[in-house]
Amino acid sequence: MKNAMDLVMAAKARITEVPAADAPAAVREADVLIDVREESEFAAGHIPGAIHASRGMLEFKLSANPALQARDLKVLVYCKTSGRAALAAVAMQEMGYLNVRSIAGGFDAWVAAGQAVAKPEQPNFG
Predict the structure, then answer these.
(1) Alpha carbon 74 to chain centroid distance?
(2) Residues with Cβ < 8 Å from 119, sequence gap 6 or more?
(3) pLDDT over threshold 70, residue 126
(4) What is d(CA 26, CA 80) in angstroms, rounded to the nearest whole number?
(5) Cβ-based neighbours of 108, under 8 Å, separated by 6 or more
(6) Is the pTM of this model over 0.90?
(7) Is the separation of the CB atoms in 45 and 117 below 8 Å?
(8) CA nearest to 62, candidates 39, 38, 95
(9) What strands lie across the sheet with 99-103, from one edge to the other?
């Protein structure tokens, strides 16, 4: 019986991962950057310019948004450490997307490399 890590390893064998050092260039080159973490993770900080589509809702959000339906979009996905992103990239490939890559090491690698993080402003009621 397979476990989650078995599925992630199989997914990683089918996708292209961008090394963390090359991630800033990959972000600039992408037509769309998708954060597949949970809403609370995204709200705590994300890569600037990313849109949120949690792993569990990804296929539905892609199908519902006409701007994301072109199968030739250059898509870059990421999660916390790269497991969910690998699964998401495979799902997108199965949906017919032709150019999907993920960031090796995910958001944690992005932060560790000292890259910019966007954090929504909290209201000040003071």
Answers:
(1) 12
(2) 44, 45
(3) no
(4) 17
(5) 80, 81
(6) yes
(7) yes
(8) 95
(9) 16-18, 99-103, 74-78, 32-35, 51-52
- Name the token pair of 39: 């809403």
CA gap 78, 63 in Å, rounded: 19
State the catalytic residue, choosing from 32, 47, 79, 88: 79
Q: 3-state class of 118 per DSSP?
A: strand
pLDDT digits (tens, 9 = 90+) for 71-121: 999 999 999 999 999 999 999 999 999 999 999 999 999 999 999 999 877
Decide if 36 contacts 53 (C-beta within 8 A): yes
Q: Is 79 considered catalytic here? A: yes
